[in-house]
Amino acid sequence: MMHAKKRILAAIALAVVSAVSLSGCGGTAKKDAAKPAADAGKKMVLRYAENQPKDYPTTKAAREFAEIVKKKTNGRITVEVYDSAQLGDEKSVIEQIQFGSIDMARVSLSPLSEFAKQLNVLQLPYLYRDGAHMWKVLDGQIGQDLLKTLDKSGIIGLTWFDAGARNFYTKAPAKSMADLKDMKIRVQESSMMMDLVKAVGANPTPMAYGEVYSALQTGVIDGAENNWPSYESTRHFEVAKNYMLDEHNRVPEPMIISKKTMDKISPADQKIIREAALEAGKIERKLWAEREKASEKKVRDGGSTITKLTAAQHDEFVKAVKPLYDKYGADVKDIIKKIQDVK
User: Fold this and answer.
1) Do 176 and 94 share a structural domain?
2) pLDDT digit string (tens) for 173-214?
3) Is residue 294 in some structural domain?
4) Which residue of 83, 100, 182, 236 shows the fewest CB atoms closer than 10 Å?
5) Nearest Cα residue to 285 out of 76, 130, 60
6) Bridge-partner residues for 242, per DSSP?
7) Residues 57, 99: Cα–Cα separation, whole Å
8) What angle do CA 149, 252, 98 make, to 5 degrees?
9) Model pTM?
10) How far apart (Å, rounded) are the C-alpha atoms in residues 150 and 23?
């Protein structure tokens, strides 16, 4: 009886390994799956997950990455980009990357932080002085060290993509923190984001992203928060015409690869993957800046009122959210100080 059970378990294990081998690296033969590293020259097909549509900066950069890899490996390594969440939502994609059944992805920091808690530091509000400060941090040792915290989860961080700054937008005019008082603001299902909205005097309302337009239209909520391209592409500017540039969050998004996948790639090809990722990161930043400008123009042309805060008004927000640093930053105070000390 015990022998029969062992045979059944062995058969199941073999089936799982075979499935992962085929789905994780589509061009990899079964006989190579057991090898810890591939010889240079081996053909591979890598599956890359992206939840944004084809024309989004992160998706365009992923396709540029695929082209760079294809060119530098003379077509030996093909990266197939699956946009529009074809391979599942971000959390399930991350889990599949851990197991090697999806090879690569660009993911938001919020779900990824569940696998490497130190990444939460980058979601703290008003962490950076501006965009230039953020990139000095991420392109330096701090950014590299934070990516390495993913290693223990079977995930390798390759580079950072830009996702812009998030701002509040509302149906009624809101030109200062006082104007947000008691407003119902849609937020992601994140305790930190809910606490941020409470700290500035508003009422957080967690809601699925796809429901926001109608909720704004019908008055179920008074406002929401997001970056320029999202505010524009969802057409939320049609029903919430007041956009306040408080820049409460600048949350970068990493490009990641499965450690199981990386272990099957030769050192020479690993180098190509890493270099192509860094190049794609620079391309994405440029694409993002272009998209932001186009989105801003469309929003302004659509009649939205854009409010830029004074230094004193901005400081009000910064002071209001300080308790969040005690609650969410207690274990990473050293990293916070290093970030704030970057000039």
Assistant:
1) no
2) 999 999 999 999 999 888 899 999 999 999 999 998 889 999
3) no
4) 182
5) 60
6) 170, 305
7) 27
8) 40
9) 0.83
10) 22
